[in-house]
Amino acid sequence: MLLSTQLEVTANGETLKCEHVLWTGWPDRGVPDNYLATLRLVRKMAPFSPCLVHCSAGIGRTGTIVGLDLCQKSLQAGEKVDMHEVVKELRKFRHGSVQTDVQFVFMHAVILKLAENRKAATKDQVKPFFDEYTAYVATRQ
């Protein structure tokens, strides 16, 4: 579940308005059940700069969201996405980003769901991945 709160911070006579989004359905060191909610969150934060993303340790859920944002921006620019390279780049700036193997595989699942939604892949084409993914995640959480 995503909870959104509007905040106003005032200091020295200046007021900054910001939105705080709290995702209560994403377990620590795990992955959420909803791929589309993840895509919606990444799309929602895309126009904002600066944007602060954080979780308990600042590497698992945070790294996954920031990595997916990087993937989406690369895809929008017509570039190929190599998830290993995305995580490698993240880890140059934040050691341990994308904390677990399940989070790494989840990133693939989200991008494949995006491809399916954009009609770049059919449901039949991605079904074998999602069948294996579902079974894998069940053993890891």
TrEMBL record:
Residues 33-105 form the Tyrosine specific protein phosphatases domain. Signal peptide: none annotated. Residues 1-114 form the Tyrosine-protein phosphatase domain. Pfam families: Y_phosphatase. CDD domains: PTPc (cd00047). Gene3D superfamilies: Protein tyrosine phosphatase superfamily. Transmembrane segments: none annotated. GO terms for molecular function: protein tyrosine phosphatase activity. This is Protein-tyrosine phosphatase. It comes from Panagrolaimus superbus.
